[in-house]
Amino acid sequence: MFKPGGGKGRRKSLSEARLAAIVDSSSDAIISLDLTGAIVSWNLAAQKLFGHTADQMIGNLIFILIPEERHADEVKILRRLELGERIETFETTRRTRDGTLVHVSITISPIRDKRGGIIGASNIAREITESREKERRLKLLLREINHRVKNQYAVILAVIGQTAAREQDIKIFETRVRERIMALSHSQDLLSSVDWAGVDLRHLISHQLKGAGSDELVSMSGPEILLNANAVLNLGMALHELVVNRIKFSGPHQSDVELSWAIDPLSDGAQFQITWSETCMKEPDLLAHENGFGALVLKRIVAAALRGSSSWTAREGRIVWTLAAPLSHVQF
SS3 of 103, please? Predict the structure, then answer.
């Protein structure tokens, strides 16, 4: 027998069932409240986020989830809702069952009765703890990059200034500046490839030697060590000057190089030491013939940047450059 309005009732029931299914399957915590702040409904995502079941929460006040210092804010929100004011999405913290605070983004919408009156609120909470942490790390990274870029500018300006002060020929000046900036670029590429994390010393050496086309007759020995960004840039500069010095005065096929490094575990702090030892085929002191930026880098700049000391000597037919610095200023 036909019942007036029966189809409409079934459609309403289906609509309500569909809405309930959507709420329960949502990945966001959806909580409805009355205007006193009492919890009326609690979906599965809310249970997953806050640790409380629906049975534990329905009938209790929402203040269970809110840190005490934010209770007054929630009271104001409920009053504003009752007055029909719009509540913009905001970020805040909420407390889980075990007491942990989580960062959440909350969207609040009014719940109205058949006459349009506001009888409660629907809270949709989305956890943003991970995104907040990513944002924090990104800001730190951007600050670090900004700091590194400024340092790079300072180094480049020093390269230009010191090279210009010692080169009379403009073509030689242009060549030397380009070579030195390219050497910095090689180090920068290595740092960028590991997101400015640790760079293996052996990798840095190989990169600088190949970049200058001078990887012949160079033997390397030493333990594995990851260099921090400052050490990568400064040791990269030193290696470049040593390679150029070698090519200019001996030629890569006229000298061989032993490049070694070690870590000395001293009682007052571990020390890092690296030594470039090269056969001297032509001159007793190759560096003395380039009393310029290269000498400044090898004798002063790198050592000062790494809080260490360096020496350059010629003995028994070999040119030897040694740098010693606290491991804490070198290692990543």
Answer: strand
Report yes or no: 129 and 103 within 8 Å, Cβ to Cβ: yes
Residue 325, pLDDT score: 95
How many C-beta neighbours within 10 Å does residue 154 have? 10
- Burial (0-12, 13-18, 19+ Cβ within 10 Å), 118: middle
Q: How confident is the model over 273-314, as pLDDT tens digits? A: 999 998 875 554 555 555 567 777 888 889 998 999 999 887
SS3 of residue 302 by DSSP: helix
- Give exposure, 155-174, as e/b (b: 16+ Cβ within 10 Å): beeebbebbeebbeeeeebe
Nearest to residue 181, comparing CAs of 158, 206, 150, 214?
A: 158
Any idea what DSSP says for residue 98?
T
Task: Please write the tens of the pLDDT for every residue from 2-29.
Answer: 344 555 555 445 444 555 555 566 788 9
Eight-class DSSP state of 61: B
- Count of other CB atoms within 10 angstroms of residue 135: 11
Which among 317, 243, 320 is positioned nearest to 280, based on CA atoms? 317
The DSSP secondary structure of 164-177, one letter per residue, reads: HHH--SHHHHHHHH
CA–CA separation, 60 and 237 (whole Å): 66
State both tokens at 174. Answer: 């242009």
* Residues near 100 by beta carbon (within 8 Å), at least 6 away in sequence: none
Residue 283, helix vs strand vs coil: coil
* Structure confidence by residue, pLDDT tens digits, 32-73: 999 999 999 999 999 999 999 999 999 999 999 999 999 999
Q: Is the pLDDT of residue 128 over 50?
A: yes
- Phi then psi for residue 40, to 5 deg, are -105, -35
Spell out the domains of the chain, with CATH numbers in brackets: 6-127 (3.30.450.20), 138-329 (3.30.565.10)
